[in-house]
From TrEMBL, chain A:
It is found in: Cytoplasm. GO terms for molecular function: GTP binding. This is Neuronal-specific septin-3. One of its GO terms (cellular component) is cytoplasm. Residues 45-318 form the Septin-type G domain. Residues 315-337 are annotated as: Disordered. Keywords: Cytoplasm, GTP-binding, Nucleotide-binding. Belongs to the TRAFAC class TrmE-Era-EngA-EngB-Septin-like GTPase superfamily. Septin GTPase family. The gene is SEPT3.
From TrEMBL, chain B:
Its main location: membrane. Belongs to the TRAFAC class TrmE-Era-EngA-EngB-Septin-like GTPase superfamily. Septin GTPase family. This is Septin. The gene is SEPT2. InterPro entries: G_SEPTIN_dom, P-loop_NTPase, Septin, Septin2.
């Protein structure tokens, strides 16, 4: 890179696919097997995924994460016992698990933020969260500029932040706006409407429209951000998600009930059973597909290529150099730049 | 209203029959003519269904032209007090209901000053009533004191929030608090029980005094006693509000239509709406009495003890006190003078006699 001071955000215009010379292959070479090789490699190394959940207590964050990953990855605080009170300040609790599916190992870390938005005075309650996210970037940066760096730098950066919106049915709360304004610049935020079984179909549609409009009016870019769509295909796909499905109205549950002869995850009420994975009831399946089945890798890439790079550029600018290092590496200070 | 036993008069021809057994009927007739006044305050965060519940309770539309502000506008807003009055008449009985709404409560990022406005309003109504009561013309005192406050607790949390606790502690000596769990269709039955128990525990732990239904009198009938007992065990009430008519099981009911079923507002198995309504109507009189006898009297004694507040009042009173004291002094002096004169007269008459009897006066 010739620029020592890159611009904070690069806005790629939706580029076309690279022009290729039409070559007639005379026979089968086997270039396509590279995909298989990459797959095998990924399976062996496994990968990390760090997801943060933010929202007022009682909105079903832990239950939803458990439902997403179909295992008890988050300790439910559904019964704050007498001794556990709402913490006076926002705490950051990161719990790591290794889950495996189809031979692929995933090291999943769920970062919980109890105490967010629960106090009487919630001013700046997003600051501990912002600090945590930046600390993870810092850790990664330090590791990256080391001479003897590890082959695989442990990635503790937050790849995805699920922000839980309370289903009031009216609009966002001032706290929601402030949080998302501050944090959409450092992390991928996916807004989620919690406990969506509170709203009827019409109320849901209306509420989602209102929330989308409010986010737009206030200039909040949630994931998938418009500016990072790489090509036309991505753009159309993401546009559809952005304008119609998001924010996802979800219901979480870890209890199973018998419905029509099948066992489904749901919530049982005197007037019916709410099926978590039924698209007519709630959009949990959409959220799960979005986060895990289609955009997992993209979340990591945007975090690495954009948010992390922004942080790195700012740090380079601020210090006029790299973060203070240990004595041994000082000689290579210049070359690393 | 409690069931009224049909007036049983003894035979007017019976000797000893005075006829004041007719009194309750007269009172009843007079109050029906006069109508009832009731002021209900609703407090809770935005979006908990307060307005919908009020509309459902009184089968009316109290907020026809309502604009709900967006989040950005709410950042700057402070708590406001909006009172709307509606006159409801049913079978000849008139009720003048005032609903005091508190939009903006709990919205701000920093809610420290949320309750100041509300407490000032409640005190202001008490102050006005006190002033009217101490005035000269007491015929037409308008009672705008808040008789009951429905406090809406969010069903999404795990119990009471710090704001809930602080607010209730600040007003439990001024107004009857009835805690209500809103949007109860979010919760399954088990979750409801857990939340209710949790809230009751926390209320007790923090020493919050909520409104307690009076026990049924021993002379009431069994049904009423059972009903009261049921109501008492259901506090806080889990309610769902709606004014939409949905078709369910062949008939039209008020409810909410979900893809997985219909929540009926007036079905006691679905929520406690009917219980809340019964409680409010049956105990309207009691709520007014407790406000008058307990909260208002507390306020009044505090007020009169601490003396008048404004500076001008103080000066005026000082002058008044001075005048009164001077008047008293004069009166006492006159009394002393009179007593002295009396004693002198008695002494004189006594002297005439003491010569005979040797009495000392």
């Amino acid at each position: 890179m010739s620029d020592l001071v890159p611009e904070p955000r690069q806005k790629p215009v939706v580029p076309m696919k690279p022009v290729s010379i039409n070559s007639n292959l005379l026979g089968y070479i086997g270039i396509d097997t590279i995909i298989e090789q990459m797959r095998k490699k990924t399976m062996k190394t496994g990968f990390d995924f760090n997801i943060m959940v933010v929202g007022q207590s009682g909105l079903g964050k832990s239950t939803l994460v458990n439902t997403l990953f179909k295992s008890q990855v988050s300790r439910k605080s559904s019964g704050w016992s007498r001794e556990e009170k709402i913490p006076k300040t926002v705490e950051i609790k990161a719990i790591g698990h290794v889950i495996e599916e189809g031979g692929v190992k995933m090291k999943l870390t769920v970062i919980d933020t109890p105490g967010f938005g629960d106090q009487i005075n919630n001013e700046n309650c997003w600051e501990p969260i912002e600090k945590y996210i930046n600390e993870q970037y810092e850790k990664f940066l330090k590791e990256e500029v080391n001479i003897a760096r590890k082959k695989r730098i442990p990635d503790t950066r937050v790849h995805c932040c699920l922000y839980f919106i309370s289903p009031t049915g009216h609009s966002l709360r001032p706290l929601d706006l402030e949080f998302m304004k501050h944090l959409s610049k450092v992390v991928n935020i996916i807004p989620v409407i919690a406990k969506a079984d509170t709203m009827t179909l019409e109320e849901k549609i209306e509420f989602k429209q209102r929330v989308r409009k409010e986010l737009e009016v206030n200039g909040i870019e949630f994931y998938p951000q418009k500016e990072f769509d790489e090509d036309l295909e991505d753009k159309t796909e993401n546009d559809k998600i952005r304008q119609e499905s998001m924010p996802f109205a979800v219901v979480g549950s870890d209890k199973e009930y018998q419905v029509n002869g099948k066992r489904v995850l749901g919530r049982k009420t005197p007037w019916g059973i709410i099926e978590v994975e039924n698209l007519n009831h709630c959009e949990f399946a959409l959220l799960r597909d979005f986060v895990i089945r289609t955009h997992l890798q993209d979340l990591k890439e945007v975090t690495h290529n954009i948010h992390y790079e922004t942080y790195r550029a700012k740090r380079l600018n601020d210090n006029g150099g790299l973060p203070p290092m240990t004595v041994e590496t000082e000689e290579n200070h210049e070359s690393n730049l | 209203m409690s069931k009224q036993q049909p007036a049983q008069f003894t035979n007017p021809e019976t000797p000893g029959y005075v006829g004041f057994a007719n009194l309750p009927n007269q009172v009843h007739r007079k109050s029906v003519k006069k109508g009832f006044e009731f002021t209900l305050m609703v407090v809770g965060e935005s979006g908990l269904g307060k307005s919908t519940l009020i509309n459902s309770l009184f089968l009316t539309d109290l907020y026809p032209e309502r604009i709900i502000p967006g989040a950005a506008e709410k950042i700057e807003r402070t708590v406001q007090i909006e009172a709307s009055t509606v006159e409801i008449e049913e079978r000849g009985v008139k009720l003048r209901l005032t609903v005091v709404d508190t939009p903006g409560y709990g919205d701000a990022i920093n809610c420290r000053d949320c309750f100041k406005t509300i407490i000032a309003y409640i005190d202001d109504q008490f102050e006005r009533y006190l002033h009217d009561e101490s005035g000269l013309n007491r015929r037409h005192i308008i009672d705008n004191r808040v008789h009951c406050c429905f406090y809406f607790i969010s069903p999404f949390g795990h119990g009471l929030k710090p704001l809930d606790v602080e607010f209730m502690k600040a007003i439990h000596n001024k107004v009857n608090i009835v805690p209500v769990i809103a949007k109860a269709d979010t919760l399954t039955l088990k979750e409801r029980e857990r939340l209710k128990r949790r809230i009751l525990d926390e209320i007790e732990e923090h020493g919050i005094k909520i409104y307690h239904l009076p026990d049924a009198e021993s002379d009431e009938d069994e049904d009423f006693k059972e009903q009261t007992r049921l109501l008492k065990t259901s506090i806080p009430f889990c309610v769902v509000g709606s004014n939409q008519l949905i078709e369910a099981k062949g008939k039209k009911v008020r409810g909410r239509l979900y893809p997985w079923g219909v929540v009926e507002v007036e079905n006691p198995e679905h929520n406690d709406f009917l219980k809340l309504r019964t409680m409010l109507i049956t105990h309207m009189q009691d709520l007014q009495e407790v406000t008058q006898d307990l909260h208002y009297e507390n306020f009044r004694s505090e007020r009169l003890k601490s003396g008048p507040r404004t500076v001008e009042d103080e000066e005026v009173n000082k002058d008044q006190i001075l005048l009164e004291k001077e008047a008293e002094l004069r009166r006492m002096q006159e009394m002393i003078a009179r007593m002295q004169a009396q004693m002198q007269m008695q002494m004189q008459s006594g002297e005439e006699e003491s010569a005979v009897h040797g009495h000392h006066v």
